[in-house]
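Q: I'm writing up a methods section and want to include an example of the input and output format. Could you take the sequence below and give the corresponding predicted structure tokens, formatted cleanly so I can copy it straight into the document?
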Amino acid sequence: MNNDSDLQIAGDILEVPHLLQPAREHPATIAEFAGLAREIAANRAEWEHLVEYDATSRWYHRLRTGPGYEVWLLSWVPGQGSGRHDHGPSSGVLTVLDGTLSEHSSRGALALGAGSQRVFAPGYAHEVVNDSLDGAVSLHIYFPGLTEMPMHRCSPADLESVPA
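A: Here is the clean output for your methods example:
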């Protein structure tokens, strides 16, 4: 018995509903959005049949929405990239579902394989590129929903971080 406290719980705590937090229907924290992305990634039957590859432009599909957020599915053929951009006032979670993508930012280049996640704050500028020889699929959650995606020009310092 723990004598550090006079509080003791007797009986089944689950029978005291007012002490339990209600289950949330929608995510509200960064950790919950990252968890939602992992949950969707694990359920291939939800998204795999929707994926298309388009050699002329990046393909995307809004997978679901909720109060204050959107979930997007994107495919990338070899060589396709997003261009350097930010997401305006939106934060986000990028999760690679299949293949490998490269993220280029002011911090350098980062290879993202299947299962990798990146969480970003409003105004974070990056470029995502499929530098591999195979197709790739990614999941993007934006909160609040994406309303703008300003494009950025690369500075000489940015070019130093991008491999030739």
